């Protein structure tokens, strides 16, 4: 039987990495890639495939199936989730019957509480932890634009058998996905969260792109204040982070495209719903829980609310 992998959420993350999987396993005898999509995205991909554009080239890929019909999708061995954090619970409603007790779920969200939230919905399932570093976005339905060359996927679990994890890592490697199976996955996810939470909060509050934040001394200091607050929260939670995590995060930002911004800022500018609850409010709430003051995050939350 084929190993069946569903991709839920065909935005910048799910569309890009799902696209690499679809390209690698097109007409494969052992692996089937299913895009779970509806509306204009489903129509566009069914008709023209999924187009992925980078700085240097573009490609069009076709999954084994693109559908939102659970009868067509059938049972899944793996489900990779990459919707917005505010859609985590509702995104599963139409495909619950496609998820059996043996389905392994890999969340690739911006926040850090996805695994816990998904485990509540599917208490019997294996839910991994994961995160990605990539600058990518929807250009239009069925078209993903990736900016820059940086792309990394990290995943792991403290409870899942190493054979199951190695199987997924092999699937990624054969699709030329730069993926890393890491033992200390919670710390890795939090390192990404520190990066994206501070960036999303700062760019949204200041209405500036990355270059605008870095090139203005006052704005950069504002951003660093956010890094210090969220790092203090992480330490209070007992996470073992690098001693120079703030400096490392600043370096990551300095290596990012200066004319780009966070997805939350893009959503805010477009008048769309944002991930402020997962990226900003979560830090404030965890600070209260662990007795850590987060006044800069609180200021941003009040404005975004």
Describe this structure in words.
The strands form 2 sheets. A 6-stranded parallel β-sheet has the order 5-2-1-6-7-8. Strands 3, 4, 9, 10 and 11 form a 5-stranded mixed β-sheet that branches. Helix 1 links the parallel strand 1 and strand 2 (31-36). It folds into 2 domains: 3-183, 3-Layer(aba) Sandwich (Rossmann fold), CATH 3.40.50.720; 187-304, Orthogonal Bundle (N-(1-d-carboxylethyl)-l-norvaline Dehydrogenase, domain 2). It is globular. It is 45% helix and 23% strand. The model has no long low-confidence stretch (mean pLDDT 96). It has helices at residues 12-24, 39-48, 70-73, 114-121, 162-174, 185-206, 210-214, 217-236, 245-254, 263-269, 276-290, 295-304, and strands at residues 3-8, 31-36, 50-53, 58-61, 65-67, 76-81, 99-107, 126-127, 129-140, 143-156, 179-181. The protein has 305 residues and is α/β, with parallel strands linked by helices. It is built from 12 helices and 11 strands. Helix 6 packs across helix 9 (245-254), helix 6 (185-206) packs across helix 11 (276-290) and helix 11 runs antiparallel to helix 12.
Produce a short descriptive summary.
The protein is of the alpha/beta class and 305 residues long. It contains 12 helices and 11 strands. A 6-stranded parallel beta sheet has the order 5-2-1-6-7-8. Strands 3, 4, 9, 10 and 11 form a 5-stranded mixed beta sheet that branches.
Keywords:
305 residues; alpha/beta; Rossmann fold; N-(1-d-carboxylethyl)-l-norvaline Dehydrogenase, domain 2; six-stranded parallel β-sheet; globular; pantothenate biosynthesis; 2-dehydropantoate 2-reductase activity
